[in-house]
Design goal:
Helix content is 22%, strand content 38%. By secondary structure, the chain is α+β, with helices and mostly antiparallel strands. Keywords: Metal-binding. It holds the Pfam family Glyoxalase_4. This is VOC family protein.
Length: 139
């Protein structure tokens, strides 16, 4: 199955100063900014487009339970994940299973933009957090 880079997720401490950097220094365009309090997300999210490519800025809203807060505490701010768009997430999951690649249980969800996503287990991806996603019903 074909995979295409969808976006890069970047863990940040201050969403406003990060938005300012991406818009003013990198000439990005703010596509959306929202807060997700979904368990296992608990983050402010800013979607920025820079020259046709998407960046998701992720700032924790709960320093105790947010996975972004844990990431920043362990590794510092910076690239959190790389997301690849697949044609059909269900088929891609079957392929991963056949290849012995595990997913992070409990991460399958649909975000407010209709993107279905799941995270692969970093133990099987050389330590990189990889997201697979699709956009059902969208071309």
């Amino acid at each position: 199955m074909d995979k295409k880079l969808d976006h890069i997720g970047i863990a940040v401490r201050d969403i406003e100063s990060s938005i300012h950097f991406y818009m003013n220094v990198l000439s990005g365009k703010l596509i959306d900014c929202y807060t997700s309090e979904v368990i296992g997300v608990e983050s402010e999210v800013a979607i920025i487009e820079v020259n046709g490519e998407r960046i998701e800025l992720l700032a924790p809203t709960n320093n105790t339970t947010s996975p972004i807060a844990r990431f920043i505490k362990q590794k510092g701010k910076g690239v959190h994940h790389i997301a690849y768009r697949v044609e059909n997430l269900d088929q891609a999951l079957d392929e991963l299973k056949e290849q012995g690649i595990r997913i992070l249980e409990g991460t399958l969800r649909t975000n407010k933009h209709g993107r279905r996503l799941i995270y692969l287990n970093p133990a099987d991806t050389e330590g990189t957090i990889i997201e697979y996603c699709d956009y059902p019903g969208q071309s």
